[in-house]
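Work Package 3 (structural annotation) set out to generate three-dimensional models for the target panel prioritized at the project kickoff. During this period the team completed the workflow that converts sequence records into discrete structure tokens, so that structures can be stored uniformly alongside our sequence database. As a representative example, we reproduce one entry of 418 residues exactly as it appears in the project archive.
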Amino acid sequence: MLAIFFVYSATVFLWKAFHFRPWDYSINWMAAMALRDGKPFYDMAVMRDLAATYIAANSRGIFTGSYNSFIGLPTTAMLHLPFTFLDFEQSVPVYRLLCLVAMSLAVFLAGLTLPVALRVRSWLVGTLFVLWWHAPLFSLQLGQVDAWVMLSLAIALFAISREQWKLAGAGIGIAALLKISPLLLIVYCALKKQWQLVLSALLVCVAGLLLSWLPQHGEALHQFFQTVLPALGDSTRQVQNQSLGAFCARLFTADVNLLDFSKPVGAWKFAGFLCVAAMLLALHWRNRVLQAGDVAIVILLALLAGPISWDHYLSWAILPVMLFAANLSADTTAGRHRRVLLLLLLLLPMFFPVYYVRPELVANNGWWRCVTGLQMLSLLATAVWMIIRANRIDGRQMKSTGPACIIAAHPHPDQTLP
């Protein structure tokens, strides 16, 4: 029965993933095409004309505002360049299939960071989350780049578990070239004084930016940092934005329309940053060596920090959560089954899409504002739990073995558990 249910879930997932208008892929594909044609891909008027030429059937409703236009780094457009050599309609299923492969590889590599005895259960949990969480499905439907971010972060986690610092830095650097939030991982590695990793990440970022400078002689890159990035800094508080700052802005604004993309987060983004900074320091304060499990927690913190964490970004959270679930299931202390069940209940909002609360509901009852951040609150509670557990484990090891033995208490991934 379980096998039948798994096959049914996979079939439904694939059908839904491949039968949806690829809104974001249309935008990114057009940016890549504009890059080939030497056109300014941050100019909405130019992009509307190009879209009408290349993807007429999919050009409706895009390039009319900031959040339905291309706002990524030029490196995102470069990522999509190979797909422009296919017809648009042909390229969509190819891109989605490759993204699905990338997500699967990310789950596989993340599982390899654990001891041998925990890998199968981590892969099982990760696969089920890919199939059942809303974020990965939504990302594939939109044709977003989250799969490549997941794969880059998984490579980083795998490399850190093997102390391959240059490879780990390269993974984090590639993720930061696709989305800004992973820059927080570089900050955390700098706190840990893992300078080899930090230097590798920065070199990859610089190399990627220089590569994106070449096609248009830096014009697009200059426009991104001068115009696009400052606009993203004061991001929207619309319900799709699941960053902590955006949720606080929705919670405390007097406005009942939480669906308007034009309303900014404002100063609440700093409240989100401060909260995440406090959690980052709480994770760091034990002065442990850099570990893959800790970097996995920082992935959650990067999602919370934002300033923009669209609901499809939450697919990145599969990596840290699958590792945490596998570790909880192997806990030898009493009550481990209750803790695993508690984690599943805590993550329940992740199985559902973000709820678009209508203004009249908010006007009648302010509690509806809380519903717009259920996914974010789920990950926030999980991150706090992971940090507390990590610090308690190291605290017990510090008392029983001394600081020098803490490293030995974390077995190498290729070791088996006793």
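The chain has a mean pLDDT of 90.
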